[in-house]
Amino acid sequence: MGRRRFASALALIALAGLGWRVGYTLAATRHQPGPVVSLERPEGPPPRAVVRRSFDEIYYVRSAVLMTEGKPFTKPFPPDGENEAVHPPLTHVVLAPVAYLTDDSEMAMRFTAALAGTTAVVLIGLTGRQVAGSRAGLVAAGLAAAYPNLWMHDGLVMSESFSAATTAAAIWSTYRLVSRPTWTRAAGVGVVCGLAALTRSELLLLVPMVAMPAVWVAASALSRRRRAATIAVVVAATALTIAPWIAYNLSRFEEPVLISYGDGPTLKGANCDETFSGPAIGYWDGYCAAADDPVEPSVDAAVQRQQGLRYMADHADRVPLVVAARVGRVWGAYKPIAMLEEYQAEGKPLWASVPGWVASWVLVPFAVYGAVVLRRRSMTIIPLVGVVLIVTVVAAAFYGLLRNRVPAEVVLVLLAAVGINAVLERFWTRQGKGDEPERPRGLTSRAQAPKFSQ
Question: How confident is the model at residue 43 (pLDDT cuts 50, 70, 90)?
Answer without folding.
Answer: low
